[in-house]
Amino acid sequence: MNYILFDFHEDWENLLPLTYTRPVSEIRIGILTIKEKWDKLLDTNCSYLSQEYLQAKYKLITNEDNIYINGSVLPNKYLIKDILALKSGQALVQDSQLICFRTENDITEIDDTTFEKFEKINSSKKFGKINYPWDIFRQNGAEIESDYFILTEGRKSAEISLTNGIIGENIFVEEGAIVEFATINAKDAYVYIGENAEIMEGSVIRGSFALCNDSTLKIGAKIYGPTTVGPHSTVCGEVKNSVIFANSNKGHDGYLGNSVLGEWCNLG
Questions:
Q1: Mind listing the pLDDT tens digit for each residue in 204-218?
Q2: Are 174 and 197 in contact (CB under 8 A)?
Protein backbone atom coordinates (compact mmCIF):
# COMPACT_ATOMS: atom_id res chain seq x y z
CA MET A 1 0.00 0.00 0.00
CA ASN A 2 1.19 3.51 -0.88
CA TYR A 3 0.28 6.40 1.43
CA ILE A 4 0.19 10.08 0.43
CA LEU A 5 -0.41 13.02 2.78
CA PHE A 6 -2.30 15.73 0.91
CA ASP A 7 -3.10 19.36 1.68
CA PHE A 8 -6.44 20.98 1.03
CA HIS A 9 -5.49 24.44 -0.21
CA GLU A 10 -7.78 26.04 2.39
CA ASP A 11 -6.10 24.17 5.26
CA TRP A 12 -2.63 25.06 3.95
CA GLU A 13 -3.63 28.72 3.55
CA ASN A 14 -5.19 28.93 7.02
CA LEU A 15 -1.94 27.70 8.57
CA LEU A 16 0.23 30.39 6.96
CA PRO A 17 2.89 31.64 7.57
CA LEU A 18 4.00 28.28 9.02
CA THR A 19 3.17 26.46 5.79
CA TYR A 20 5.00 28.78 3.41
CA THR A 21 7.99 26.44 3.68
CA ARG A 22 6.36 23.07 4.41
CA PRO A 23 3.32 20.89 3.78
CA VAL A 24 0.79 20.81 6.62
CA SER A 25 1.96 17.32 7.60
CA GLU A 26 5.47 18.64 8.36
CA ILE A 27 4.10 20.66 11.29
CA ARG A 28 5.29 19.46 14.69
CA ILE A 29 2.64 18.99 17.34
CA GLY A 30 3.28 16.85 20.41
CA ILE A 31 6.68 15.19 20.09
CA LEU A 32 6.51 14.24 16.42
CA THR A 33 5.54 15.93 13.18
CA ILE A 34 2.19 14.89 11.73
CA LYS A 35 4.00 12.89 9.02
CA GLU A 36 6.15 11.11 11.61
CA LYS A 37 2.99 10.06 13.46
CA TRP A 38 1.48 8.57 10.30
CA ASP A 39 4.77 6.89 9.35
CA LYS A 40 5.07 5.17 12.71
CA LEU A 41 1.44 4.10 13.02
CA LEU A 42 1.27 2.81 9.43
CA ASP A 43 4.85 1.47 9.43
CA THR A 44 5.58 3.25 6.15
CA ASN A 45 7.15 6.36 4.62
CA CYS A 46 4.39 8.65 3.37
CA SER A 47 4.97 11.03 0.47
CA TYR A 48 3.33 14.44 -0.04
CA LEU A 49 0.81 16.21 -2.24
CA SER A 50 1.03 19.93 -1.49
CA GLN A 51 1.65 23.26 -3.22
CA GLU A 52 3.41 22.93 -6.54
CA TYR A 53 6.50 24.90 -5.46
CA LEU A 54 6.93 22.69 -2.37
CA GLN A 55 6.97 19.46 -4.40
CA ALA A 56 10.58 20.02 -5.45
CA LYS A 57 11.60 19.17 -1.87
CA TYR A 58 8.58 17.24 -0.63
CA LYS A 59 8.10 14.54 -3.26
CA LEU A 60 4.91 12.89 -4.44
CA ILE A 61 5.15 9.13 -5.02
CA THR A 62 2.19 7.28 -6.56
CA ASN A 63 1.62 3.58 -7.10
CA GLU A 64 -1.02 1.15 -8.34
CA ASP A 65 -2.93 1.34 -5.07
CA ASN A 66 -2.90 4.62 -3.11
CA ILE A 67 -4.44 5.94 0.07
CA TYR A 68 -4.53 9.73 0.14
CA ILE A 69 -4.69 11.05 3.72
CA ASN A 70 -5.68 14.53 4.85
CA GLY A 71 -2.39 15.98 6.17
CA SER A 72 -4.11 18.11 8.82
CA VAL A 73 -5.59 15.05 10.59
CA LEU A 74 -3.81 13.85 13.74
CA PRO A 75 -3.77 10.03 13.71
CA ASN A 76 -4.30 7.47 16.42
CA LYS A 77 -4.40 3.67 16.45
CA TYR A 78 -8.21 3.58 16.42
CA LEU A 79 -8.45 5.69 13.27
CA ILE A 80 -5.76 3.54 11.63
CA LYS A 81 -8.06 0.50 11.85
CA ASP A 82 -10.74 2.28 9.82
CA ILE A 83 -8.19 3.41 7.22
CA LEU A 84 -6.75 -0.09 6.75
CA ALA A 85 -10.27 -1.44 6.16
CA LEU A 86 -10.91 0.89 3.19
CA LYS A 87 -11.41 -0.58 -0.28
CA SER A 88 -10.54 1.09 -3.57
CA GLY A 89 -13.18 3.68 -4.49
CA GLN A 90 -14.08 4.38 -0.85
CA ALA A 91 -13.54 7.56 1.16
CA LEU A 92 -13.39 7.73 4.97
CA VAL A 93 -15.28 10.75 6.34
CA GLN A 94 -16.63 12.13 9.58
CA ASP A 95 -19.61 14.39 9.11
CA SER A 96 -18.49 16.57 6.18
CA GLN A 97 -14.78 16.18 6.95
CA LEU A 98 -12.68 14.05 4.57
CA ILE A 99 -10.12 11.88 6.39
CA CYS A 100 -8.78 9.84 3.46
CA PHE A 101 -9.68 7.96 0.31
CA ARG A 102 -8.34 4.94 -1.57
CA THR A 103 -7.86 4.87 -5.33
CA GLU A 104 -5.92 3.15 -8.11
CA ASN A 105 -5.71 6.45 -10.01
CA ASP A 106 -2.90 9.01 -9.87
CA ILE A 107 -4.25 12.27 -8.47
CA THR A 108 -2.14 15.43 -8.49
CA GLU A 109 -4.74 18.00 -7.40
CA ILE A 110 -7.33 17.69 -4.67
CA ASP A 111 -10.36 19.86 -3.92
CA ASP A 112 -13.87 19.31 -2.55
CA THR A 113 -15.00 17.68 -5.80
CA THR A 114 -12.19 15.10 -5.98
CA PHE A 115 -13.98 12.41 -4.00
CA GLU A 116 -17.61 13.08 -5.00
CA LYS A 117 -17.85 9.73 -6.82
CA PHE A 118 -16.32 7.77 -3.94
CA GLU A 119 -18.44 5.63 -1.64
CA LYS A 120 -18.50 7.44 1.71
CA ILE A 121 -17.63 5.40 4.81
CA ASN A 122 -18.36 7.21 8.07
CA SER A 123 -15.88 6.89 10.94
CA SER A 124 -17.02 7.28 14.54
CA LYS A 125 -13.44 7.37 15.87
CA LYS A 126 -12.28 10.49 17.69
CA PHE A 127 -9.26 12.30 16.26
CA GLY A 128 -7.60 15.69 16.32
CA LYS A 129 -7.16 18.09 13.42
CA ILE A 130 -5.32 21.39 13.03
CA ASN A 131 -7.11 24.15 11.15
CA TYR A 132 -5.28 27.27 12.38
CA PRO A 133 -1.89 28.00 14.02
CA TRP A 134 -3.38 28.30 17.49
CA ASP A 135 -4.69 24.74 17.26
CA ILE A 136 -1.06 23.61 17.49
CA PHE A 137 -0.55 24.77 21.08
CA ARG A 138 -4.17 24.14 22.06
CA GLN A 139 -3.89 20.44 21.19
CA ASN A 140 -0.23 20.01 22.06
CA GLY A 141 -0.84 18.42 25.47
CA ALA A 142 -3.02 15.65 24.05
CA GLU A 143 -0.49 15.03 21.26
CA ILE A 144 2.48 14.84 23.66
CA GLU A 145 0.60 12.12 25.54
CA SER A 146 -0.29 10.27 22.34
CA ASP A 147 3.25 10.49 20.92
CA TYR A 148 4.74 9.49 24.28
CA PHE A 149 3.05 6.08 24.01
CA ILE A 150 3.87 5.73 20.30
CA LEU A 151 7.57 6.25 21.06
CA THR A 152 7.91 4.40 24.37
CA GLU A 153 5.59 1.38 24.15
CA GLY A 154 7.55 -1.74 25.02
CA ARG A 155 10.73 0.23 25.76
CA LYS A 156 12.58 1.13 28.95
CA SER A 157 13.76 4.63 29.78
CA ALA A 158 17.41 5.36 30.42
CA GLU A 159 18.23 5.96 34.08
CA ILE A 160 17.60 9.43 35.48
CA SER A 161 20.38 10.81 37.67
CA LEU A 162 19.70 10.97 41.40
CA THR A 163 20.78 14.63 41.37
CA ASN A 164 17.35 15.51 39.95
CA GLY A 165 14.12 16.20 41.82
CA ILE A 166 11.42 14.02 40.27
CA ILE A 167 7.64 14.08 40.76
CA GLY A 168 5.50 11.54 38.89
CA GLU A 169 6.31 8.47 36.85
CA ASN A 170 5.63 9.36 33.21
CA ILE A 171 9.17 10.44 32.32
CA PHE A 172 11.09 8.84 29.48
CA VAL A 173 14.74 9.62 28.81
CA GLU A 174 16.43 8.45 25.62
CA GLU A 175 20.02 7.19 25.57
CA GLY A 176 22.62 9.94 25.40
CA ALA A 177 20.45 12.55 27.13
CA ILE A 178 22.04 14.52 30.00
CA VAL A 179 19.86 15.66 32.91
CA GLU A 180 21.47 16.90 36.13
CA PHE A 181 20.23 18.98 39.09
CA ALA A 182 16.87 19.73 37.45
CA THR A 183 13.34 19.59 38.86
CA ILE A 184 10.81 17.67 36.76
CA ASN A 185 7.12 17.46 37.68
CA ALA A 186 5.33 14.84 35.61
CA LYS A 187 2.36 14.38 37.94
CA ASP A 188 -0.72 13.90 35.72
CA ALA A 189 1.54 14.74 32.76
CA TYR A 190 4.16 13.31 30.39
CA VAL A 191 7.81 14.28 29.92
CA TYR A 192 9.93 13.03 27.04
CA ILE A 193 13.66 13.82 26.75
CA GLY A 194 15.16 12.93 23.40
CA GLU A 195 18.45 11.40 22.37
CA ASN A 196 21.50 13.61 23.08
CA ALA A 197 19.32 16.34 24.58
CA GLU A 198 20.54 18.21 27.65
CA ILE A 199 18.73 19.79 30.58
CA MET A 200 21.19 22.00 32.45
CA GLU A 201 21.39 22.61 36.16
CA GLY A 202 18.63 24.58 37.87
CA SER A 203 16.01 24.00 35.17
CA VAL A 204 12.43 23.58 36.43
CA ILE A 205 9.92 21.68 34.29
CA ARG A 206 6.22 21.24 34.86
CA GLY A 207 4.83 18.83 32.26
CA SER A 208 3.68 17.89 29.84
CA PHE A 209 6.94 18.59 28.05
CA ALA A 210 8.96 17.25 25.13
CA LEU A 211 12.63 18.09 24.58
CA CYS A 212 13.51 16.50 21.26
CA ASN A 213 16.86 15.12 20.15
CA ASP A 214 20.00 17.27 20.30
CA SER A 215 18.21 20.18 22.01
CA THR A 216 19.20 22.06 25.17
CA LEU A 217 17.50 23.70 28.13
CA LYS A 218 19.97 26.22 29.45
CA ILE A 219 20.72 26.88 33.12
CA GLY A 220 17.69 27.97 35.13
CA ALA A 221 15.08 27.53 32.40
CA LYS A 222 11.44 27.47 33.56
CA ILE A 223 9.04 25.37 31.51
CA TYR A 224 5.27 25.24 31.94
CA GLY A 225 3.50 22.58 29.93
CA PRO A 226 2.27 21.60 27.57
CA THR A 227 5.41 22.70 25.72
CA THR A 228 7.49 21.15 22.94
CA VAL A 229 11.07 22.03 21.99
CA GLY A 230 11.87 20.42 18.65
CA PRO A 231 15.22 18.96 17.53
CA HIS A 232 18.45 20.99 17.48
CA SER A 233 17.01 23.90 19.47
CA THR A 234 18.09 25.89 22.53
CA VAL A 235 15.79 27.38 25.17
CA CYS A 236 16.39 29.59 28.19
CA GLY A 237 14.14 31.78 30.33
CA GLU A 238 10.42 31.07 30.82
CA VAL A 239 8.29 29.19 28.29
CA LYS A 240 4.63 28.24 28.64
CA ASN A 241 2.23 26.36 26.36
CA SER A 242 4.38 26.73 23.25
CA VAL A 243 5.71 24.64 20.36
CA ILE A 244 9.12 25.15 18.73
CA PHE A 245 9.38 23.14 15.51
CA ALA A 246 13.16 22.66 15.17
CA ASN A 247 16.54 24.37 14.68
CA SER A 248 15.47 27.48 16.61
CA ASN A 249 16.77 29.35 19.64
CA LYS A 250 15.37 31.28 22.56
CA GLY A 251 18.77 31.53 24.12
CA HIS A 252 18.22 34.26 26.71
CA ASP A 253 15.92 35.12 29.61
CA GLY A 254 12.42 36.46 28.97
CA TYR A 255 8.97 34.98 28.43
CA LEU A 256 7.43 33.04 25.54
CA GLY A 257 3.85 31.82 25.91
CA ASN A 258 0.93 30.50 23.86
CA SER A 259 3.14 30.56 20.78
CA VAL A 260 4.34 28.56 17.80
CA LEU A 261 7.90 29.08 16.59
CA GLY A 262 8.95 27.57 13.27
CA GLU A 263 12.42 26.57 12.08
CA TRP A 264 15.58 28.68 11.90
CA CYS A 265 14.19 31.34 14.24
CA ASN A 266 16.30 33.18 16.80
CA LEU A 267 14.82 35.21 19.68
CA GLY A 268 17.48 37.59 20.99
A1: 999 999 999 999 999
A2: yes
